[in-house]
Write a structure and sequence with these properties.
RNaseH_sf, globular, 223 residues, alpha/beta, 3'-5' exonuclease domain-containing protein, Nucleotidyltransferase, domain 5, 9 helices
Amino acid sequence: MQMDTSQHAVAPLSKEQIRALPAFENLASDKIIVIQTLEQCLALQDQLSSIQVFGFDSESKPTFKVGEKSTGPHLIQLATYDSVFLFQVSAEILSFLKPILENEQQLKVGFGLKNDAHIFRGKDIQPTSLIELSKSFASFGYRSQVGVQTAIALLFQRYFAKSKKISTSNWAVKRLSPQQISYAAADAYAALLVFEQLYQQHRFTPQLQQQIMKILEGSTDKA
């Protein structure tokens, strides 16, 4: 993908400019693995434990009534550079993922992670080493938070389509639709790509850049 390596602030992109860009290319469907059982989790344990940085997101069945409490998360997405794992949540799967989510030496990068962290704390999981990407675009001329769609446009000159219909669909269903699978995978995968470019271009604050480097170097030393 083409990327903008300039550190100079640019005029914020309009919605029309973003929509006119070539489409973002998600991972191929055979690289997106839906996990429904503990057995599938255990088969991936060694692979997952060796990953330094995950693109991270979660999905929950939406609530529509005032005062209705979410029962999520119903889906947890962990992306690497060549695969995305979609974990359909159960008590066993949450227990399996807890050490990964709480591992200070494994970065979990994404957008809007404050809400995700709140949901996980309600399940007795204290996520650590979360890197919120939405606040790292001041050098591009953005004073407010940036979503994944704008981030992909700025860094890769690609249009990342977002469907409200899919985002507000029922994520608690036993069998996810192909559209849900693609949507969920793209969110986590795109976050990982955005993180990589922000880190390589030193777009994070010096303090955060140093914190990330320390974790990555620590993980490398242990490998």
